[in-house]
Design goal:
This protein is mainly beta and about 1500 residues long. It has 13 helices and 105 strands.
Length: about 1500
């Protein structure tokens, strides 16, 4: 596409086409080519890393492509953070002294070197010092030039980056692998890491897979570790073993697509590191079977399998099997695979698979009909594999609407394009009894939960084109079926699919091509202004009566960028073309047309359009008639049912004729003559034979079948012949006769006969064994003779005495088993036995060993005593045990003391262990021969195992109950006592129905004590036992008595409680009573009936029985009893109310009555109380109820009414009185009175003594909590510690502490309060005052303490600030001042005398200088200047004349400062006067006449104002001259 970037440039964020400065390229090439710069760059790179930056260099190819001259690589110097984001530029540091001495580029340097000027310059710089200065100058110039160029390129790059970020479409792109994971070959027990780097926007989500199974790092945290940092992802495999040899896939996915990369890991093993328990590796194959990698032939057994399973939509089921692999090797793991209908399943949100080491489990988390099928477990080892299969049926969930159809299934998306997707599905088997009218298709955009219906009217065709999608977005779909009764549940949602061009999808999902070392850059020529050509190969791909689908190919010429399409239709026989999509053109080369008239014929054509215009139309299609092109298939035929098991039937049929696009078949079954049909499968099967499970044994069924394709379901086939559900002989296996017996041994031998025993066949052929036939033959010198029948009639026991033998002859024997299907093949010939009389003293071997009641930790072993007793009778037996694979030496005894019984319960077995057993008999002579060992038995409790349950019914009958889920039609429940079949039924009654059996004790007594067991024939050893001991019998008899004479259980005994108005309620609650139950109410042995005093009620639904009395009187003291009866069950409960108990109840009843009366008028819901607000205001409040407009609420304090304007309030039923700043005067007794015509209520609050103290403590607590942390400040007098509170109260008690001791205050250490500030002043502090200070607020509880540490730097800083402030205060007090002010202007007549005096202060005594017109004047006869006592400065003019006019100033000065005072003298003409006019100033700076001034002179105009600088004036009498 034009303008696109090649992949190698997309990998770098800093790529920019504008970075093409040839000068910069040349300059930077020179830097890169320098060896000294390359070597020196490591230091700068290390510096960059230490500051958190990475400097990356990019070699651009653009300049080399555009320039005819091959240039050096062009680097850029970019500062990049950890997320590879550009944050700045790095200017390279020049470290060379020779290569960059001139600072010129390569071409400039070559040109200068050729000039004579350069030669002369080189001769001049012979001195080392001069050469160094030249190099420094050149280097500075080169660095400056390079920095300017890089700054320019930085601005150009930032402009390009900004433009890219503003264009969102250019940011979003599919994931791509910058660095792909590589394959590894490692040794066992090593760790391996797979790395990859992924780019994409939005940031891709990365998932690792092993052999296409997602790796669970959480569940296997010790094995796998996943990390993702800065777009680099890693998978660490810890301690690799052989099972880790696999293909690993890493998948990166975002909203733009998905991409995967693969790597293989091969784990090898050291030659000398082989497990010693393994045999040596063998080469080639042997007769023993396949050989694995280490020479071990694994045998796999799948036991405890799951059977045919039935589930319902929405449920969760688990399928599991126990897998036994022998030999058991440490850490060896087989490969476990699960299949459904021969399709391998992978873990997903629908399937969870688990392997525990010996048990394989698959959990279907949310069943849908898509999950129905044949599930197969495959266990793969080095020696091959074993499989087990069973069918899972999924039924429809309960419909929300009665008779609504079932949900469709198997929703898929086909032919996805930019704005168009075809959705297909399969019709459900259940239509609700009425035909399905059609289907609605819903869509949901991935990432949202909003479902949108795609079609307004239901479609009957099981395929629908969805249009109007947004390109680039992903969607999920579901389908709902509808009939006239309602809508079905929605189907399972489809897999997400993206609306995008198929070629783009293929490109995104395709694997990247291998690197070839070549980079090819192509640019498509712009095609703007070109009108697209005709679309190609337009055709009608699908036509139904609801829609028609068109498809075509885009034109082959250029100009396809931004091409869209217009579709036009034309009714056959006319030339008028009508545009179909008039509003929005389509982007995809697919289009679905709706709303066409069924039965009409149409032709179609398509036009391309882009920004340049609309192209020519394509060739029109042939006329197509609107209607369904796909016919509904014909009905199947010849349905034949065949018996299979006692719950299943095999149904076969003949396929539909000429069915097109057949999806499969649905089979239905109906009990004969019931006319109620039920589906046998809810997912179509594409075969013509199916096993229908879940049928009722003994019932007769008929079957029918119908076919289904996208057009719909066919008619039903004709009904089959009825078939009775019953197991076929042999369970459908061809060989129905039993397999041969085995393990023939001799139990006794006399001179002419032998007693033989053998073991039952492993397979009995599906029917009970009716007997055995024994044959024998003589062996002479190793040559065998002919076989002879030992018995003509079959024998039922597995032991038989063969007579008429010859003494001292040798014989061989064989045995055949027979059932109703016939006599099976004979067993293998036995060993050769010598017929001679046994004379040994010890007993012979026990025989007929049987194993029952196998559990995970125990089992019961039964045997028969030996036929040959020895010299003395048998008096006991010993049982031996060993693991099946253990050697002979591993036999060990189970019991140390011989047991006299012929059964024994073996306990404490290892769960999952494989054991064999044998028995030895003993007599007085010793222990005899061992029996034949049993078959291996695995100690595991099989799923569904039940135990015998003892029950006592309502009539007191004791029974033992046993249930078996694996029974067949021929199964029987065999009950035994002490493991001997019960023959005497006088004490026991046995009842069996279906898969349950019950044994009832007729008259339980001590003679019934014993071990009772039950075994179910024709099962896999289903059995259980129950021990009835003396204690257990006693307990059962007590329970039986309780059931015979029942007692009504009570949830609660008789109790009493008070109700509103003081009413008294007596009540109890029975656990269970029927509608016929009745109650008698009794008081002091007298029956009570319903009346004015007693009101009784019995709620039989809840079992609550109650009796209510309005009040209690002294006559009501006594005993109350409720007697209950329900059939034969009775009970009673009594309550005694006498003495103090009765009086207290009566008093409380009267109080409740008064309370009810009080609440009829205005009353207090919550009585008067107080609260303190965060502003430390005290609010007295109470909550009132039942108020009216004319209800008055009056407040009183100490009996005096509080007026309404004194902070009273009433809001939302709450009366309030606010005390803003509480003090001692606010203590007292407060009272609120409510009254109106209905009554009066009063509430009082005592706020005196303790009450007031508690209130103030709460106020103090608020004040303390509002205090700020203790702070330190300095003053001119010392150091001050202070804190602020939000409000201060004079009653607040505060204690200052120093080093955890209370401070004793003095003149030097004082405390005080200013506003809301509490402070402690330390005057003239010293180092002795250093330490921890605290202020403690006393609130009557724990108090609150704020502390501060006045030591170290804090003390030093505070002390230094104190010294500074102290010095500044001293300087301020001691500096020279003009204490009294002077007038600004003095107007005086010529010839008069003028006297002015002011006060001077300062320490030391300041120097005084007088100035006139800014020139210093001295004292003379005309102008007398005096400074007396260091305080008073006077200015006197004896006779004022015109020359004395001017500006006068006094200047005082000492070492602490200088101050001046100014005034102006103005002289006017006038008559001379002999008197002297004296002036001085008062404290405010106003001019005052002297006391000797004549009154007429006081009329002289004198003006003056206070000088702002002067703070004080001192008036003194001035003598007159």
């Amino acid at each position: 596409m034009s303008g696109s970037l090649p992949f190698y440039q997309k990998h770098h964020l800093h790529y920019d086409r504008d970075y093409r400065s040839k000068e910069t390229v040349s300059k930077l090439s020179q830097y890169q080519a320098s060896n000294r710069y390359t070597a020196g760059s490591s230091t700068s790179a290390a510096t960059s890393r230490s500051s958190g930056l990475n400097v990356s260099t990019h070699y651009g190819l653009e300049a080399s492509r555009l320039s005819p001259i091959l240039k050096r690589a062009k680097p850029t110097y970019l500062a990049v953070d950890k997320d590879h984001q550009i944050i700045g530029y790095v200017v390279p540091i020049f470290r060379g002294s020779q290569e960059f001495g001139t600072g010129f580029s390569s071409r400039e340097e070559a040109r200068v070197r050729d000039s004579s000027e350069y030669m002369a310059r080189r001769d001049l710089f012979t001195s080392g010092m001069e050469m160094e200065r030249s190099e420094q100058t050149s280097r500075r110039e080169a660095i400056r030039e390079t920095a300017e160029r890089i700054s320019l390129n930085k601005r150009i790059h930032e402009h390009g980056v900004h433009f890219k970020r503003m264009n969102e479409d250019s940011l979003m792109h599919t994931p791509e692998f910058v660095i792909k994971p590589r394959s590894h070959t490692v040794w066992e027990k090593q760790c391996v890491r797979l790395y990859c780097t992924v780019r994409g926007w939005p940031d891709p989500r990365v998932v690792w897979y092993k052999n296409n199974v997602a790796i669970d790092s959480v569940g296997h945290g010790d094995k796998y570790k996943l990390e993702s940092k800065y777009n680099m992802h890693s998978l660490e495999i810890n301690r690799c073993d052989f099972d880790d040899t696999a293909q690993y896939r890493v998948s990166a996915m975002n909203s733009k697509g998905e991409l995967s990369s693969f790597a293989s890991v091969v784990v090898k093993r050291f030659k000398g590191d082989m497990d010693e328990s393994l045999p040596s590796p063998r080469r080639g194959s042997t007769e023993d079977g396949p050989v694995c990698e280490y020479g071990v032939n694994f045998k796999t057994h799948i036991v405890d399998t799951f059977g045919v399973t039935f589930g319902r939509e929405g449920e969760t089921i688990s399928l599991g099997c126990t897998v036994i692999i022998s030999p058991a090797l440490h850490r060896y793991q087989p490969e476990i695979q699960w299949y459904r209908d021969d399709v391998l399943l992978s873990p997903s949100k629908w399937y969870n698979m688990h392997w525990s080491g010996d048990h394989a489990t698959m959990t279907l988390t949310h069943l849908n009909k898509e999950d129905e099928g044949l599930y197969t477990l495959r266990v793969i080892t080095k020696s091959g594999y074993e499989t087990y299969s069973a069918y899972v049926f999924v039924r429809d969930s309960e419909a929300e609407v009665e008779r609504a159809p079932g949900a469709p299934l198997d929703v898929r998306c086909l032919d996805a394009n930019k704005d168009y997707i075809i959705v297909t599905w399969k019709q459900p088997a259940v239509d609700g009894g009425d035909s399905i009218l059609g289907y609605f298709v819903d869509r949901c955009e991935v990432g949202t939960t909003h479902w949108v219906q795609c079609n307004d009217t239901p479609v009957k065709f099981a395929r629908f084109p969805v249009t109007g999608l947004v390109e680039g977005r992903s969607y999920m779909f579901r389908v709902r079926a509808v009939n006239q009764n309602g809508m079905s549940h929605p189907s399972r949602v489809s897999e997400p699919v993206a609306a995008m061009d198929p070629s783009d999808r293929a490109r995104i999902r395709g694997a990247s091509a291998p690197w070839t070392g070549q980079i090819i850059v192509t640019e498509e020529e712009p095609a703007e202004g070109i009108v697209p050509g005709r679309p190609l190969e337009l055709q009608v791909t699908e036509a139904t009566k609801n829609y028609v689908v068109l498809s075509w190919k885009p034109p082959g010429d250029k100009g396809l960028e931004g091409v869209m399409y217009y579709v036009e239709k034309c009714v056959a026989g006319s030339d008028t073309w009508q545009r179909v999509n008039t509003e929005i053109p389509v982007k995809s080369p697919r289009f679905a047309l709706f709303d066409l008239a069924e039965g009409n014929s149409y032709s179609f054509r398509v036009r391309c359009c882009n920004a340049a215009g609309v192209g020519e139309p394509s060739d029109p299609t042939e006329a197509s008639t609107v209607g369904d092109k796909l016919d509904i298939p014909s009905a199947p035929s010849k349905v034949v049912p065949i018996r299979n098991t006692d719950t299943s039937v095999v149904v076969s049929w003949q396929a539909s004729c000429e069915a097109k696009e057949l999806v499969g078949y649905y089979i239905e079954a109906s009990v004969l003559d019931s006319n109620e049909w039920a589906p046998c499968n809810n997912k179509p099967v594409n075969v013509t034979r199916f096993i229908c499970h879940g049928l009722t044994t003994g019932e007769k069924y008929v079957f029918r079948v119908r076919a289904v394709n996208a057009a719909g379901l066919s008619q039903f086939s004709p009904e089959s012949e009825p078939v009775e559900v019953k197991a076929a002989i042999g369970g459908g296996i061809p060989h129905a006769s039993p397999t041969p017996p085995y393990g023939i041994t001799v139990l006794e031998c006399v001179f002419d006969s032998m007693v033989l025993s053998w073991k039952q066949p492993t397979f009995i052929g599906g029917a009970d064994i009716t007997g055995y036939f024994v044959d024998y033959r003589e062996v002479i010198d190793g040559v065998t003779g002919k076989w002879h029948e030992a018995n003509i009639r079959s024998i039922s026991e597995r032991a038989y005495r063969v007579s008429d033998l010859k003494e001292k002859r040798k014989y061989q024997f064989q045995v055949r088993a027979a059932n109703m299907a016939g006599v099976g093949i004979p067993s293998l010939p036995s060993d050769t036995f010598l017929c001679e009389e046994w004379t040994i003293a010890v007993p012979g071997p026990p025989h007929d060993l049987q194993v029952r009641e196998v559990r995970s930790d125990s089992l019961v072993l039964l045997w028969k005593p030996p036929v040959y007793q020895g010299r003395d009778p048998v008096n006991g037996f010993y049982i031996d045990i060993k693991e099946a694979d253990a050697p002979v030496e591993a036999w060990k005894g189970v019991n140390t003391k011989a047991t006299e019984k012929t059964f024994f319960k073996i306990k404490n077995l290892k769960e999952g262990g494989n054991f064999v057993f044998r028995v030895r008999a003993q007599n007085k002579a010793g222990v005899g021969q061992t029996s034949e060992e049993t078959e291996p038995v695995i100690a595991v409790t099989k799923p569904g195992t039940k135990e015998i349950v003892v029950d006592v019914d309502d009539d007191g009958i004791i029974s033992m109950n046993f249930e078996c889920c694996d029974t067949t039609q021929d199964s029987k429940f065999v009950w035994s006592k002490n493991y001997e079949e019960i023959a005497d039924t006088s004490r026991l009654t046995i009842e069996t129905k279906g898969n349950k059996s019950k044994t009832i004790f007729n008259t339980p007594a001590e003679e019934d004590i014993g071990i009772y067991s039950c075994i179910v024939t024709h099962t896999d050893g289903a059995s259980s036992s129950y021990t009835l001991s003396e204690e257990e019998l006693k307990r059962l008899l007590e329970v039986s008595h309780d059931h015979k004479f029942p007692v009504i259980p009570l949830k609660s005994e008789l109790a009493v409680e008070l109700l509103e108005k003081g009413k008294v309620r007596f009540w109890l609650q029975a656990d269970k009573m029927s509608a016929n139950g009745k109650v008698d109410y009794i008081f002091n042995d007298n029956l009570i009936s319903q009346g004015d005093k007693y009101k009784v009620n019995f709620d039989k639904n809840t079992g609550v029985i109650e009796m209510i009395m309005d009040s209690l009187t002294p006559a009501d003291e006594g005993t109350f009893t409720f007697k209950l009866q329900d059939g034969k069950a009775t009970n009673q409960s009594s309550l005694v109310l006498i003495g103090d108990v009765f009086k207290e109840l009566q008093k409380e009843s009267e109080f409740q009555m008064k309370e009810w009366v009080r609440k009829q008028g205005p009353h207090f819901i919550e009585y008067l109380g107080y609260e303190v607000t965060p502003e430390c205001c005290v609010v007295l409040k109470c909550k009132v109820g039942n108020m009216k407009k004319d209800t008055s609420a009056l407040w009183y304090k100490d009996g005096h009414e509080i007026k309404a304007d004194e902070n009273l309030g009433f809001t939302e039923g709450v009366l309030k009185l606010e005390i803003a700043q509480i003090s001692k005067k606010d203590s007292g007794v407060y009272e609120v009175v409510l009254k109106d015509d209905r009554g009066k209520d009063t509430s009082t609050l005592n706020l005196t003594d303790k009450g007031f103290k508690d209130l103030m403590n709460e106020v103090f607590s608020f004040i303390a909590n509002s205090s700020t942390p203790l702070k330190i400040t300095s003053t001119e007098n010392g150091i001050r510690l202070y804190t602020f509170v939000s409000y201060y109260n004079d009653l607040l008690q505060v204690t200052w502490h120093y080093k955890d001791s209370a401070i004793s205050f003095s003149d030097r250490i004082k405390s005080g309060v200013v506003g809301e500030q509490l402070w402690l002043q330390i005057s003239e502090p010293s180092e002795k005052d250093m330490g921890k200070y605290a202020i403690e607020f006393n609130d009557g509880k724990g108090g609150l303490r704020r502390t501060v540490e006045l030591s170290g730097q804090a003390f030093d800083d505070a002390f230094a600030e104190f010294q500074r402030l102290k010095a500044a205060a001293i300087a301020e007090r001691s500096r020279a001042r003009v204490a009294g002010g002077l007038p600004d202007v003095v107007t005086i007549q010529e010839g008069k005398a003028l006297n002015l005096t002011c006060n001077i202060s300062g320490d030391p005594v300041p120097e005084v200088t007088w100035l006139k017109n800014d020139r210093e004047i001295t004292s003379d006869e005309h102008c007398i200047l005096k400074f007396e006592s260091g305080k008073f400065a006077s200015f006197t003019i004896t006779g004022v004349n015109i020359s004395d006019s001017g500006k006068y100033s006094i200047l005082v000065k000492n070492k602490y400062g200088t101050e001046s005072g100014d005034f102006t003298v103005e002289t006017t003409d006038g008559t001379p006067d002999l008197g002297v006019t004296s002036y001085w100033t008062d404290a405010d700076g106003n001019v005052v006449f002297g006391p000797n001034t004549p009154k007429e002179k006081m009329n002289t105009t004198v003006t003056g104002t206070k000088t702002p600088k002067r703070k004080e004036s001192v008036a003194r009498k001035v003598p007159m001259e």
